[in-house]
Amino acid sequence: MNKLLRAGAGNQAALAGAGPGARGLAAAWRRIESVAGFAVLIAVWQLAQQASGLPSSLFPSPLDVLHALVDLYQVGILYEYTLLSLSHYLLGLGLGAGIGLALGLLISSNRRVSDILMPLVNFTYAIVEVAWIPLLILWWGYSPATIVVAVAYVVASPLVHNIITGVRSIPPVYTRAVRALGGDRLVVLREVTLPAIVPSLFNGLRVGAGFGFRALIFAEMISQSEGIGYLIFTSAASQQTARTVAGMIVMGALWLFLDRMYLRPLESISTYRWGLSSEAQK
Q1: Is residue 163 part of a domain?
Q2: 145 in the same domain as 224
Q3: pLDDT per residue over 102-152, tens digit each?
Q4: Which range of residues forms the domain containing residue 27?
Q5: What is the C-alpha to C-alpha distance for residues 16 and 151, in angstroms, rounded to an integer?
Q6: 279 in a domain, yes or no?
Q7: Which of 145, 159, 185, 197 could be joined to 204 by an S-S link, Cβ 3.0–4.6 Å?
């Protein structure tokens, strides 16, 4: 076991001291590994479709789904619905993040406020977004506002809990030290609280963002006549299974794009800015 550990440490040290070519090769291999799972899934999917004996209208093959994706793109539905769903999601994500951050800091800043609001936060946390959608439709109708509010609700809930946990885990000595140097509440917030809760903030944001994406699809299925969720729902209702799976693939690909291109870089830059990482991840 010790030999294996020493060998692994030696390999890491050799890679760290290697030139740009070796590091580029390692990065390329990691990219290959990241898509290997999808390749295996497609192969198993194709074999299962052939072995099942079911018609493609019930169990489409990967090629059938690819044709459905091409058809949706050619008629313009794919681009239009994806852009619409993305706008709903980003608006809800921004609104929910702002509300969750403000509410989490408010609750964690005062024990009396915490005693008053925490039972209400825990109560609403247990109510899933699907239960709210019928009420939101009554209040705002079949409009984008219903979808944005549903997404914001789901994003804010885990963010509040994570921020409260992060604030309460800060050693009191840091706050006392800043106050001893003449710092007021705003200085404590800027120099102590915000840097300390960055890991909890992004953990809650990533969890909320994932839940919010599912809330987006649920809300579009029920309260919208456009969007990826609407595409999945209507395709399944009309037994266009290939289109249904195509919508599911677009949904997953859109989430991977958002996570890889925005959430992860933002998390890396922020943790590096506040000194929580020695090097921003690429």
Answers
A1: yes
A2: yes
A3: 998 888 887 888 888 888 888 887 777 777 888 888 888 888 888 899 899
A4: 2-52
A5: 42
A6: no
A7: 159
